Amino acid sequence: MIIAGDIGATNVRLAVFDDNLTILDQHLYKSQEYKSLQDVVRQFLENTKYAIKAACFGVPGPVKEGKCKLTNVPWEVIDAEILATLIDSPVSLLNDVEATAYGVETLRDDELVTLNIGDKLSGGNRAVVAVGTSLGEAAIVEVEGKIHVIPSEGGHSDFGPYDQQQWDLLCYTQRDYKRVSYEVILGGQGLVQIYNFLRDTKFKDSPQLLEQNLQIDDKAAAINQAAQGSECPICVEALRLFVSILAAETGNAAVKYFSTGGIYLGGGMAPRILASLRQPLFVENFVNKDKMRNFLQSIPVYVILNQYTGLQGAAWYAKRSC
C-alpha cells in the first residue's frame, strides 16, 4: 500500500491508497496542533493496519535534496530521510503544486471545466496554475512517453500591471509590500487586498453589513459571496480585477511553458469563483498578449474541480516510484 499526503497551512490530509489508487483509509489533521509532520505521520500509522511500501507528500514550499523548508506552516523542515525511517519505506517529497500537476494524470473528464476549448496537442507541454492560500505554478512535460513535472516558484515573480488601474493597485500595495509579487495579488488574501485598494481609492465606502462580515468571517469568501450576488459594487469590481489579473498570469504561464497540451487552474480558489471564470472576461485577458494572441487562442484552459488532486498526484508519483 501507499501513503500519500497533502500538507497545508491549515490541514494535513493523509491517506492510504492501493495499487489502483483507490483510497482505503484517510484522516484529516490540524497543522497547528502538531509540532512536526513526523508527529502527524506517527499518529496516522498508529491507526492504520496496512503494510506500506512507499510514501509521497505534497508540501507547501520548494523541495531541495529531499528537504523542504516550509513557507506557510510553523514547522522548521520536512526531511524525507527522517520520514522514511519512521514509515520504514521510501519517501518522496513534492512541492504541493508539483503534486497537483502529477494529479492531473488521475482526473476524469467530469472533474474538469473547460474555459477555452483551444486545439489540444497530444504530448504537448502542460502547465498548472494553482490559486489558493498562495499562488503556485508548475509545468508538465512528456519525454519518451513518461510524464515529468517541473516545479517552480513562479508565483513569486514580480506583478506586471497592464493598465493604469493595475499600476495604481501596485502603488497602493507597496505601502505594505516593498516588492509586489503575483502571490501577493492572487494568493489567499489577494482578493482582500484588491477590495481594500478599491474601497480606499475609488469607492471610499462599503456596505456596513459587509464590513461587519469582514471582521468575523473568511474575508475573501465574504467578498466573493457579495460579488457573486451583485450585492456590493466594490466586491463586483474587486472580483473582476482579480479575474483579469489571474487570466493574464495564466497566459504568462502558457507562453513561458509553451503549454500546447493545455493549462489547468487548480487550488481552492478557482472552483469558488468558477462562475466569474466562465465569463468572457477571463479568456479575453488570457489571450491578450499581442503577437502571442493566436497561439494562446489555441491553448485549452481547464478548471480542476477535484479538491484532492494534489493528494492523488502524490499517490500516483509514489506508485510510479515503487
UniProtKB/TrEMBL annotation:
InterPro entries (alphabetical): ATPase_NBD, Glucokinase
Name of the protein: Glucokinase
Signal peptide span: none
Gene Ontology BP term (one): glycolytic process
A GO molecular-function annotation: D-glucose binding
Gene: glk
Assigned keywords, A-Z: Kinase, Transferase
EC number assigned by the record: 2.7.1.2
Family listed: Belongs to the bacterial glucokinase family.
Enzyme class: transferase
Entry-linked PANTHER family: GLUCOKINASE (PTHR47363)
